[in-house]
Amino acid sequence: MELLNLALSLEEDLQSFYKKQAKLHEGNSLQTVFQLLEKEEEKHTEILRSYSEKLVLPLEDSCILSEVQPIFKEIPDFKSDIKEIPSQLDAYRMALEKEIQSLKFYKDLRDSSQEEQSKKVFDYLIQQEDTHCIILEELVKLVTRPEEWVESAEFGLREDY
Predict the structure, then answer these.
(1) Rg (alpha carbons) of the chain, rounded to whole number
(2) What is the dihedral angle through the alpha carbons of 123, 124, 128, 131, rounded to the nearest 10 degrees?
(3) pTM for the full model?
(4) Could you give the CA distance from residue 142 to residue 96 in angstroms, rounded to a whole number?
(5) Rounded CA gap, 134 and 71, in Å?
(6) CA-CA distance, 50 to 60, in Å (whole number)?
(7) CA-CA distance, 51 to 68, in Å (whole number)?
(8) Structural domains of the chain in order of their starting residue, each with its CATH number
(9) pLDDT tens digits, one per residue of 119-149
(10) How far apart are CA 122 and CA 55, in angstroms?
(11) Which among 70, 61, 54 has a CA at the least distance from the CA of 5?
(12) In Å, what is the CA distance from 76 to each residue of 71, 79, 80, 147?
């Protein structure tokens, strides 16, 4: 049950991170993105709770607990000397980092699980976290594109924008 509690804690921490970011970005487009991600993490928490009695998690011979601490509690909030609210790009990158850590955690749990039902639940959560990573990667790309992209008709082939 200790691993399940850790997984629940991870989801709750991520959910509270997104809730805090939505509040920080009240009134702009980031608020909507973070509210959607918060709802997704809430669903993951519900899934873990609903399967809590059916999940068989490896408790012996597992080094996951020694490797994984409360992941999201260790990452500091955004800091900026100039502005109180982080930039859109900073917010997306921080969220992406958290989703990648969550993805790795669930992959480790799935790989160490022996029970098929547990593997199915973790596979589902892995797919969900992977989708969140893809969304956030695309948002990072969209935000950085104007700063990095130089378009000129005289220079050969360009990738579609």
Answers:
(1) 18
(2) 60
(3) 0.67
(4) 14
(5) 20
(6) 23
(7) 22
(8) 2-145 (1.20.1260.10)
(9) 888 898 899 999 999 989 988 888 887 766 6
(10) 10
(11) 70
(12) 11, 8, 12, 26
